[in-house]
Amino acid sequence: MSELIETTGTDRPEAQESLQETLAEVTTLLRRHRLIEGLVYEQMEHGLGADRSDLVESLVFKQDKAVLQRRLDTLHPADIAYILEALPLDERLYIWDLVKADRDGDILLEVSDAVRESLISSMDTDELVAATETLEADEIAELAPDLPQEVMDDLFQSLPVGEREQLRAAMSFDDDMVGALMDFEDVSVRPDVTLEVVLRYLRRFDELPSQTDQLFVVDREERLLGVLPVGKLLVNDPEMTVADVMEAPRVKLLQHEKADEAAHAFERYDLVSAPVVDTNDKLVGRVTVDEILDFVRESGQEDLLAQAGLREEEDVFASVWASFRNRWAWLAINLVTAFIASRVIGLFEGSIEKLVALAALMPIVAGIGGNSGNQTITMIVRAAALGQVTIANARQLIRKEIVVSLINGLVWGGVMGLVAMLLYRDVALGLVMVLAMTLNLILAALMGVLIPMALLKFGRDPAMGSSVLITAVTDSGGFFIFLGLATLFLV
To answer: Who's near 150: CB < 8 A, 6+ residues apart?
Structure first.
C-alpha cells in the first residue's frame, strides 16, 4: 500500500503536499548531475581528458552523483515511484539505475502499470529475478502479468515449496476477485489455548504482519471458528482461553467473491482486516484495508479513463505510437458521431439561412443537454459501482431522471426562452427554445440511464466510453430537436 509520508535521515515525516518539493529537488539534482556528465564527456571528445577513467575519477561528478543517490535512499518506495512517473523516459531510467537493487521489487509494486512496463523492459532476467524473489507470494502475483515468462520460471524454481504453492494460488484468481487482493500473512491460533500462550507465541515474531488488528481462530482442519481482536488479547486475564474471549467474524470473505463486495464490506463496517475462506470454510488468507484502498483507487482511475474513452492507463511520457494506440478507437467513434451531428445540421441549412438566430442558439441546446446527460451518467455509474442499482430498477431510475430533467428543462429553458425573446424580439423563438431544451434534457436523462444499464446487461464496464456516447447523443439530438421545431413553427 502506498504510504503518503516519507522519512528522511532525521526521521522527519513529510506530508503528501511536500512530494512536489521532493520531485523538484530530485529533478534539480538529476539535471545538474547530467549537465556535469555532459561537460566531462565534451572535454573527452575535445582531447582534454585522457580516457574514460577521467570521467570516473572526476571528483565533482562522483560527489554530485553521491548526493543524488543519498537523497533517493531516504525516500519511501512509494515516493520514488511518484518521481519515476513524473520524469521523461531517459531521466526515469537514469534514476532507476541509481536506486538500490534491493528496493527494486517494492518500487515496481508502487508504480503504475504503464511505467512498470518501461522499467521492466530496461532490466535483464537476473535483475528481475533478484528484484522479485524477496517479495511475498501475493506481491509477486501482482507483478506476474508484466514479467517475462523466463523470469517467472526462474522464480518458481527459486522459491520454497510453500511459497511456490501460494504463488500458484494467488495467480489463479482474476484481478476483480477477493483472492487477488488477499495475502497469506494471517496469524492463526487454536481456541483451547490460553491468552498467555498466545502472547508468548506472538513474541516469537520479529514483527507482526502489517494491519494486524485481530488473530484468526481455527480448528485443527484450519476451519475458521472466530477472531481474537488484539485489544481483547491485551486487556483480558492471561489465564483465560481464546474460546472465552473470541468473537464471531464481522465479515467472512470467500476467495472467489468479487472484490467490489469486499470493498463495500470494509467501507460499511470500518474494517482493518478480514479473513478469507474457501468453500469449505477453511482459512486461506486475509484482506487488509491497504489493499482495499489500492483496489478502490485503481477502480476509480479505470472508470475515469473509461469515461474518456481511453483503453488503459497511459504513461504520460509514453511514445507517440503507444499513446495513439491507446486513444484512437474512441476518437474514431467520436469522429463518426460528430459527422452525424454535422449532417443533422445540414438537413436544416435552409432554415438556418432564413433565421440566423438559430445558428447562435443551437449550441446552447446541445451543450446543456450534454452537461445534464453527463451528470446523470456519472450518478448511475457511481451507484452501479457501489452495487446500488441493477437492471431490475432501471424503470424507476428512468422515471425519476425524466421528472428531474423536465423540471430543469422548464426552469432553464424558460430562462433561455426569455433571453431569446428579448434578444431577437420573437416570442415564438423563445417558446421553441423552451420546448427544445426541455426535450433535449429528457433525452439526455433517458440515455444517461440506458447507456450504463445496457453496458451492465452485456457484462461491460458501465463507465466505458459513456462520456463520449452521451455527448454524441445530446449533440445530434439537440440539433435535430431544436432545428426541427424551428422549421415547423418559425420558418
So the answer is: 125
Summarize pLDDT for 126-169 with one digit per residue, the tens.
999 989 988 888 889 989 989 999 999 888 888 888 888 888 98
- 476 phi and psi angles, rounded to 5 deg: -65, -45
The closest alpha carbon to 139, from 166, 174, 160, 113, belongs to: 166
> Is residue 422 within 8 Å of residue 375, measured between CB atoms?
no
CA distance 84 to 96: 8
Give the whole-angstrom CA distance, residue 204 versus residue 427: 86
Residues with Cβ < 8 Å from 395, sequence gap 6 or more?
A: none
**What letter does residue 144 receive in the DSSP assignment?**
G
Alpha-carbon gap, residue 170 to 287, rounded angstroms: 13
Delineate the domains of the chain, giving CATH numbers in brackets. Answer: 6-176 (1.25.60.10), 188-306 (3.10.580.10), 320-489 (1.10.357.20)
Burial letters for 353-389: b for 16+ Cβ neighbours within 10 Å, e otherwise?
eebebbeebbebbbebbbebbbbbbbbbbbbbbeeeb
pTM: 0.69
CA nearest 401: which of 447, 452, 453? 447
Characterize 120-129 residue by residue with b for buried, 16 or more Cβ atoms within 10 angstroms of its Cβ, and e for exposed: beebeeeebb
SS3 content of the chain, % helix, strand, coil (to 5): 65, 10, 25
* Under 8 Å between Cβ of 457 and 431: no
CA terminus-to-terminus distance, the chain:
64
